[in-house]
Amino acid sequence: MDNIHLATLIIIGANILVSLKGFSDISFFERYKFCIGPINSGQKERMVTSGFLHVDISHLLFNMLTLYFFANVVIQGFGAPKFVIIYVVSLIAGSLLAVFFHKDEPYYSAVGASGAVTGILYSAILLQPGMDLYLYFIPIPIPAYVLGIGYLLYSIYGMKKRLGNIGHTAHFGGAIGGYVATLLFNPDLVFTSTLMVVLLAIPIVILFVMEKMGKI
């Protein structure tokens, strides 16, 4: 990890420190996790703190490795300060979408950096849509935009079916945050990568159409 940027290292370090505290102190974990009831009662800080807590080491490792693999694409495209802004915007966007969809479920809870990390992933795809990604169970390269679109479509399915103990809503919200922030920082992408901008917007449009129709 000799080429890791200081900004990425700081974010990973913060996630590790807060998560380790949560692993060893259940009262700390319960106090700062995302939970609709306390958030509705005024504990809005949970919308940020929950993004640095994780369920276990494997959850933490997966998120931090994903961040490591895509952080440099965003840093090279925008610089470290805007990378950090995109990370934070994506984290908050993930929490806001979770509140929107689960506001009437007081016991709904979640933790993890997945929303923020998905925002960085989506930003990286917008900046370099031609990237080829390799998944360990598929022996051929997959275009980054195919993975991004497929992942969000799966997230919609996961939200609708309540699949597993996974914060699909936060993932989706984080992707929206990364998508919007990237276009705000580089609006020329609308003209230079029009097709990709439209393609990556399709799952977002589908989600809100389904929500309006009461299908999710």
Question: Top keywords for this entry?
Answer:
single chain; 216 residues; mainly alpha; two-stranded antiparallel sheet; 11 helices; 6% strand
Question: What would you say this structure looks like, in words?
Answer:
With 216 residues, the protein is mainly α. It is 71% helix and 6% strand. It contains 11 helices and 4 strands, in the order H-H-E-H-H-H-H-E-H-E-E-H-H-H-H. It has helices spanning 6-24, 26-32, 36-40, 46-49, 57-78, 80-102, 114-127, 144-161, 168-185, 189-192, 194-212; strands at residues 34-35, 109-110, 132-135, 138-143. It has a two-stranded antiparallel ribbon with strand order 1-2. The chain is globular. The chain starts with 5 loop residues before the first helix and ends with a helix.
Report helical residue fraction.
over 70%
Q: Extract low-pLDDT stretches.
A: none
Q: Which percent band covers the strand fraction?
A: 5-15%
Mean pLDDT: 90
Q: What is the molecular shape?
A: globular
What radius of gyration results from the CA coordinates? Answer: 17 Å
Q: Helical stretch count?
A: 11
Q: N-to-C SSE series?
A: HHEHHHHEHEEHHHH
Strands of the largest sheet, in order across it?
Answer: 1-2
Beta-strand segment tally:
4
Structural class: mainly alpha
Q: Report how far apart the termini are.
A: 41 Å
Largest sheet: 2 strands, antiparallel
